[in-house]
Specification:
Rossmann fold; seven-stranded mixed beta sheet
Length: about 190
């Protein structure tokens, strides 16, 4: 019961090793078995390949819950069965949200995103499992040239900040090495 409502955020750039680290952490915290909340939707061969790579790494210790939308329900469901729930990934979930959102009403877009992430956080905090959120850190490069890409970057950044604020630990993964960065932030 030490994991009751605990949240961990694992972030980093593309191919930084964040998912592999999060998977190992989930199995460790889950006593050798865990739930996997999959947010990806397969629309092309590239995404199909990425999903297959992730699936190939996971064995029978995992139970997958597909949740491209309404993932808070799957967090709640999985948290009743498993001690560890891995949510992979926040940025794909934000992308799914953007694809279904009204992009013309910017105020509503940002408010709806905050509500969506609040629902994920609330489900995780009420869970009897530890919930590990995986997300990409997308704001470290140049400013995107188009409005949609800038919105995605901004909304993903807001989502990451919201989850990090509630997280017990936040790991930044670089070159396959994860560092707990939240403990440094608490000094300020």
């Amino acid at each position: 019961m030490e994991n009751l409502g605990k949240i961990i955020l694992v972030t980093g750039g593309a191919r930084s090793g964040k998912s592999i680290f999060a998977e190992k952490l989930a199995l460790k915290l889950g006593g050798g078995r865990a739930a996997y909340i999959a947010t990806a939707q397969i629309f092309d061969e590239e995404m199909s390949h990425r999903v297959k790579m992730h699936q190939a790494r996971r064995g029978k210790e995992w139970r997958t819950f597909e949740a491209p939308i309404n993932a808070e329900k799957k967090i709640s469901e999985a948290g009743k069965i498993f001690d560890a729930v891995l949510f992979d990934c926040v940025t794909i979930y934000v992308s799914n949200f953007i694809c279904a959102a009204d992009l013309d009403d910017e105020e509503k877009l940002y408010a709806d995103l905050r509500r969506l992430i609040d629902e994920l956080i609330d489900a995780a905090e009420k869970s009897s499992a530890v919930t590990i959120f995986v997300s990409n850190e997308v704001g470290g490069g140049i400013v995107p040239e188009n409005k949609l890409a800038r919105r995605f970057r901004d909304l993903a950044g807001i989502a990451n900040q919201m989850i990090a604020a509630h997280a017990d630990k936040v790991f930044l993964t670089v070159s396959g090495i994860a560092v707990d960065i939240k403990k440094f932030a608490e000094v300020i």
